[in-house]
Amino acid sequence: MLDLKGSKKKSKKDHFPSMNYSDKDIFSMLFLDKLEVLRGITIDDATVDDCYVALASLIRDQIMKQWTRSGASTYKNDDKKKQVYYFSLEFLLGPMLERNIMSLGLMDVCNEALSALGLDPQEIYAVELDPGLGNGGLGRLAACFLDSLAFLGIPGNGCSIRYKYGLFEQKIVDGHQVEMPDNWLKNESVWEVKKPHKAVMIKYYGNIREEVNGNRIWFHHENYDSVIAMPYDVPIPGHENGTVNTLRLWSAEATQQFDYSSFSSGDYLNAVSLKYSAEAISEVLYPDDSNYENRMLRLKQQYFFVSAGLQSIITHYKKHYGNIRHLHKHISIHINDTHPALAVPELMRLLMDEEGLGWNEAWDITVQTISYTNHTILPEALERWPESSFAHLLPRVHMIVREINERWCQVLAEHYHGDMGKVSSMAIINHGEISMAFLSIVGSHSINGVARVHSEILKNELFRDFYEIFPDRFNNKTNGITHRRWVLKANPKLSDLISETIGDGWITEPLKLELLDKKGAVRDKAFWGKMREIKRYNKIQLAKIIQDCNGITVNPDSVFDVQVKRIHAYKRQLLLLLEIIDLYYDLLDNPNTDFTPRTFILAGKAAPSYHFAKEIIKFTSVIGDRINNDPRVRDLIKVVFLENYRVSLAEKIFPATDVSEQISTASMEASGTGNMKFMMNGAVTIGTYDGANIEIFEAVGKENYVSFGLTVPEVFDLRRSGSYNSRDFLSDHKRLKRIVHDFINSDWKDALKADFPYIFDSLITHNDEFFVLKDFDAYVDAQIKISTLYKDTDRWSHMAAMNIAHSGIFSSDEVIKKYATDIWHV
To answer: Which whole-number Å values give the CA distances from 515 to 178, 520, 621, 698, in the listed order?
Structure first.
């Protein structure tokens, strides 16, 4: 059984047997040698880009040695380790250089060596672009899980797409979001290794020919369009333990790159059309799905990386393990949300059509191999595909899905004694659509939610009927984050303070953060003082970024009140904006009030076709322009929207935050992970009883957070009863009526020429679906409480310290231990 305290730590001598890389002079020598070999220059002529390539290549060399040894050790004896494959459409890794140096235990010597050469280490680290492999919490969670898998010594591999342009680079122009290509691969990625010999073929369209051979029907895919899936492997090192796992990214390439005859006849576009058609599959994360072509491109993407990944797994498995009938004993395949749900029928296809297994045997292996994490209750995120389009694109996979559905409906008909209404409601294929969530549930041995309340909603509301049939399959695994990136790397001064106070054991055993409480640091004024100094330093650094990027001067002694996340109605950025307007009006009406200055910081991307979210960004800009330029309040309130939210920017925001805004509508946020990152960095949460907020509140104690708003049962009751009418509610609320009418119909619109029909419709026409108006009064009261608490410096410091001390349970190390034992059985 694996020791889940972390894989055995090897000495640096074992890591680097040929040379002592912890020696500053040797490190400097190797760095200078890399400059000469790779760039053909000396340090006198080197640019910061040259220095980045040399340093990253030096670190890569050391990781490559560990990578090779890690792979070999997995298969070196008869007791071969079980492999975990984590399929996710996103892996939001963030810049890798600094994290990889830290994983090798070389941070100090690297910084010392570079500084001795007259170089600024931070300037070199800043050269690296964020990999464009994700967008939000789904991708960050996957990246955190990879980190913890490697640290715990579990052979765990990621599988995804190598997006050429990521999601998009966000620019704010005249307050509007403008999407630009995120060309993160414009310079060659130092970390990836192309593996042409492991490329596989993906087949689309065509027809299926059946061949009867004895008692068996064989299926042959003919007249198909083919695409090559080219693998690029990225090493994922564990923290100072010599383990290196793999993230495999697939890039789409044409089987025929260039049509010479078309070119010769002058048809230049057709000569390269196949190349560009194939490459479109891996061009962009989440193509705008407002048109049919892009919706089909999304389905192509999902099958592309699932089929490529599974083909690769089976090839690898047969080489090292042999008997395909024992696949589930040696391999766990985890699908992160429904994007990889095609793993169920595709694994069936491979086991039956390629490996010759019968249906029942293939199905048993598939279910025992695959597990599924659900991340949402939003109907639009529970993917459904038109069956006709699905069948046209993936004819053989469609046949298998139909067979799965027919067999499942037979089970349901027997279970419900012929109640066809119940059968229809639970069918995988219904009303001409294929439900990927239902397919994932039926085809997996484990279905987990990502926070306790979310998992209960899955069991008691969203998938209640499935839970009645499969009670043993449903479980909870509350999300977690890697504290080694989000504290150790992002907040080094706080990390040093923690280690000085309780030792550095928390880096490998995050639950030891509780020693801050047990040993009394959370009640120590000297500790508070050091913690406040670090927070102010971090706020000054963020203030410089705001000044450079937005041209706005903010006061580091103001409360940094932050909401950074994907823009969506249920996350309720609108609630914060309405409160800001209310606060602004209150200061105008009461100019002599005793007020603690606030800096409101927002960031996040809106999906290109999500008009409401784009209006939220514009509305934030309108409010900011009005308030930031009003001499009556500009020293009291500032409103900032930071463009192009990404991991590297988040690493500056979380350590500088005082107040963490976690204000989603109760029941709507599956878990959240930003709430945990803020908590670990000593921010105090103002939040609803939603997602992992509830478990954070329980961990820190009721005196160390500020909650407000409707609860999950109250939200469900209001929706079921239909008793809430937002128009009537607004007409009886003077303060809200003033805000809403002003920004829609009065001086906000006329003076700034802004128009917000989608916002207005969300509040009135669509009856305030996410209860922004309903929760407004409670939210304002909670904000008043925050201001009162912040004025009591010692009280606030104790709250911040308690959040840090009790955040260890939200480390992804702790979560992965539960996945490993409860789901993957590694």
So the answer is: 47, 8, 43, 18
